[in-house]
Amino acid sequence: MATVKMKRYKTVLHHRIDEILKANGKPLFPSEDLNGLLPDLYDLASFETERLYEFALKDRERRSVVELISALKRIDEGVYGTCEDCGKPISEKRLQVAPAATQCIECKVEAEKRERVESIRRTHSHHGLQLGEPPGGN
């Protein structure tokens, strides 16, 4: 990929990292000291639910930053824009939408299909069923 495009992608990646880090002015790993500020169990339960939600969001943001930094590293290594599965170029359109992408759209679709099948298998095996076996067994 051309050097000008790589510089543009580097700028986009840095901009996205900055956006995530500055979002809401809150740190990625918030820590709070309650010091007995919650008067009852209902308030505590509500606070904990909100805090778990916040941690889930921050964890997603943290993972996004890691993916974006990895993309910057791939630019420096000269492999950015190449599918890690098939080795073919990742389309410009895909990189514009998902600049940290590591797979071309075809490989990503296949990976997602495999993940869905594996999820269904785990769910069925958790319930004691094997794929292809009719419910109730014989």
Order of helices and strands: HHHH
Give the proportion of residues in helices: 55-70%
Poorly predicted parts: none
Mean of the pLDDT scores? 83
Rg value:
22 Å
Summarize this structure as a short list of keywords or feature phrases.
single chain, 138 residues, mainly alpha, Four Helix Bundle (Hemerythrin (Met), subunit A), 2 domains, flat
Could you give a quick summary of the protein structure above?
The chain is mainly α and 138 residues long. It has helices at 3-22, 41-77, 92-97, 105-126.
Structural topology:
Layout: H1 3-22, H2 41-77, H3 92-97, H4 105-126
Structural commentary:
With 138 residues, this protein is an all-alpha fold. It folds into 2 domains: 3-103, Four Helix Bundle (Hemerythrin (Met), subunit A) (Up-down Bundle); 105-138, no CATH class. Helix content is 62%, strand content 0%. The chain has 4 helices and no strands. The protein has helices spanning 3-22, 41-77, 92-97, 105-126. The model has no long low-confidence stretch (mean pLDDT 83).
